[in-house]
Amino acid sequence: MADVPPERRHGGGGRTTLPPPGRGPLPPPPPSRMRFEPVEREKTCPLLLRVFTKVGGHHSKEEFAIRGKEPKDEVQIYTWKDANLRELTDLVKEVSPEARRRDAKLSFAFVYPDKTGRFVVREVGRTFSYGNGRRLDDAKTLAELSFQIGDYLDVAIQ
């Protein structure tokens, strides 16, 4: 979680302090990777994910600055927080001919307002249109990447 900005971290977020010498055991080391339980998709209502695609690169944060004037190339997807980037890649391929190219690479970024209300575009992972054994971030889920309901997903197709 070192690459997740402090304002986006979930959980304790506080500082771990060591006890004074001779006073009890040391705290346990932090887990190497947070584990999230899979969602029971049959019983859990999906969330609306607003996805913006662009060939060549990500949209700029300025393109999201005015509410209601977001980029026009939007696709709305209903999904769950345990959806991984491979699932999202396959969904983007259904609506974007450029993403179906055999050599296409997809870069995923979350778009959200920071503490001051200005939008941030933060890259969270990359996939290939067709795996062919070259798995990058395919298995990363929205939850593992600190997605919060209301964030946008920006997908650069290269």
TrEMBL record:
Top-level lineage group: Eukaryota
Protein name: Uncharacterized protein
